[in-house]
Amino acid sequence: MNRGMAKKRILIIEDEKPILEAEAMLLESDYEVFKASDGKSGFELAKKHKPDLVVLDLMLPHRGGYDLCFSFRQDPTLKKAKILMVTALSQDIDKVKGKMVGMDDYLTKPYEPSLFLEKVRKLLS
Q1: Phi-psi region for residue 94, left (φ > 0), alpha (ψ -120 to 50) or beta?
Q2: 104 near 123, Cβ under 8 Å?
Q3: Percentage helix, strand, coil, to 5, in the chain?
């Protein structure tokens, strides 16, 4: 890695451990990855590491995805982070709500790893 180019930082907030680990594995070769399994610790990690992108599960213990997304957007140090919301809910209303609280893109579980990576790259480009 050349010195001028720091790796982009990605925070994954996901309470299902197999999904959290799989997403991290897909990203770790190209990005600096931080992991949280609930909303509260996810927000604390975000404040600490200032990620470029947050992969945010919607259904989380101790603070849901919508609440977190809104908090990111209200926080002057975090509001520039891109937010990729990942959820098992594929209702249009969820997409509308997600847009209202400030998400940048949306992915419905289960998804193809290639699509996940494509969305991540697009958001970070």
Answers
A1: alpha
A2: yes
A3: 45, 20, 35
Q: What is the β-pairing status of strands 82-87 and 53-57? A: parallel
Q: Is the pLDDT of residue 24 over 90?
A: yes
The owner of tokens 């002057």 is: 76
Total-model pTM = 0.91
Amino acid of residue 106: Y
- Structural domain boundaries of the chain? 9-120
Evaluate whether 54 touches 83 at the Cβ level (below 8 Å): yes
- DSSP H or E segment with residue 54: strand 53-57
Neighbouring C-beta atoms of residue 30, cutoff 10 Å: 14
At residue 88, does pLDDT exceed 90?
no
Quickly name the fold that domain 9-120 has: Rossmann fold (3.40.50)
The per-residue pLDDT for 97 is 86
For residue 73, what pLDDT is reported? 95
